[in-house]
């Protein structure tokens, strides 16, 4: 995953640290060596994404990919998705929603809000690991634009 | 005053009977009294006729006598005119008297005596007149003076008077009786009318009271019914809500349970990989006598892999159970789509799906569908029937070919029963209810399974507004009965879009 040699940072927002670790391991197994920044709650993640001034200017020139869980302790992932896609600087950053919900309305809502990929976490571990690995392979070939 | 139905029927019948009897009494008495009156009237008429005839005869006799006497006194024919005028009519009058006296039994003796007296008098009068005309005036007077004529006349007169008296008495009596009869008739009519009025009034009052009570009772029933319906609706929606909550609860719980389980399984997998690396390294390491190394090698090559195997087995089992609950809760949350289902085709399709497995054992499936149509959720029904057929095949009797009968027929309450009967190994009576519970199985555990199928079947049948029950004899076979509403849309509180 690259863009003119500049590194893409994966922002992983996942409240379950075990899941976060398993996701990271499986992505790495797919050959993705980009930096992964884990966040276990929405507030910290938003602080990083939008910067201390809340404008998102701090990430100008970086390439970000957001891996988002919808069930967070302090807010729902939908709130974060809305803010990322509504911000002038971060709106082009790909957002991959990776969550347990398979409710059709929730999926539709996420795509309506601009989510790029929606993946339901498989209920069994084999499927889970497999899905993450495939996601990692996908990451390896995708282009990520620079934030403005 | 409440009137029971029995009392009402009895009192109404009694009143009708009284009214009928009163009417009969009035009619009977009237007819009898009119008959009586007729009798009295006829008696009076007869008496009048008798009196008139008698008076006429007497007058004629007296006139004749007057004529005879005048002629004998004067010798002139013109005094004889009353005699001549009446003498010819007397026999006729006599016959008339005889006629009118017929009804009176004592007249039998009287009439001949009157006849005798009258003919004696007539003879005497004729004789005197003849003597006088012959010039024997003295002879005629002597005959008169002999009193034969007078005696006969007196006799006749006394008879006449008696008849007239009798007739008068009868007339008075008849009129009296007639008056009495009409008075009686009037009283009978008045009393009867009172009785009928009383009966009609009583009946009308009873009917009125009863009708009013009926109306009040009906109103009460209607009110109670409306209240009951309202309560049923409330309870049904409460139940629906509770059911939804339970399903949501099951869904959330299973979801939340699954998240740590994915971790356990994931890290077990990681651990396994690490242990694999470790144990292969330890296996290749040169043997030393260091007891720590021996222990570490044992742990890496035996204890750790064994522990991981057990953890894996346990988590896989737990994963299976959680997935089962998830499946059932997902099924309960699924929006049902009621549609018209042709049961005959539907059952044939379900039977065809397992035809191969049944034919392998030399068995057969027979379908007998009396009810052709049903409105329900096709997918759920397919799963219910498919599950039951799979069970019938899975738990067949090892010593005989499978025989499955599927029957669909009407049952009371606008419902349809679908029966799936097999000749399999059967279910012991103690397990008839238990087999429907989640994760519970019955009999020899010779087949793989988690004990989900029938729980799932029952959940789906219930979400279709129905239920599933069974009849079974161990070693003989089992019949599952799916009871469904004919139209899913008519089920109150159903969870459909």
Give a written overview of the molecule.
The complex is a heterodimer of chains A (148) and B (497). Helices cover 39% and strands 20% of the residues of chain A. With 148 residues, chain A is α/β, with parallel strands linked by helices. Chain A has one domain: 3-Layer(aba) Sandwich (Rossmann fold). In chain A, strands 1, 2, 3, 4, 5 and 6 form a six-stranded mixed beta sheet that branches. In chain A, helix 1 crosses helix 5. Chain A is globular, with a radius of gyration of 14 Å. Chain B is of the alpha+beta class. Helices cover 70% and strands 10% of the residues of chain B. Chain B has eleven helices and seven strands. In chain B, a hairpin with a 3-residue loop joins strand 4 and strand 5. The chains are: A alpha/beta (148), B alpha+beta (497). At the A-B interface, helix 1 and helix 5 of A face helix 6 and helix 7 of B.
Q: Which structural traits does this protein have?
A:
heterodimer, A: 148 residues, alpha/beta, Rossmann fold, six-stranded mixed beta sheet, 5 helices, 6 strands, 39% helix, B: 497 residues, alpha+beta, Heat Shock Protein 90, 3 domains, five-stranded mixed beta sheet, two-stranded antiparallel ribbon, 11 helices, 7 strands, rod-shaped
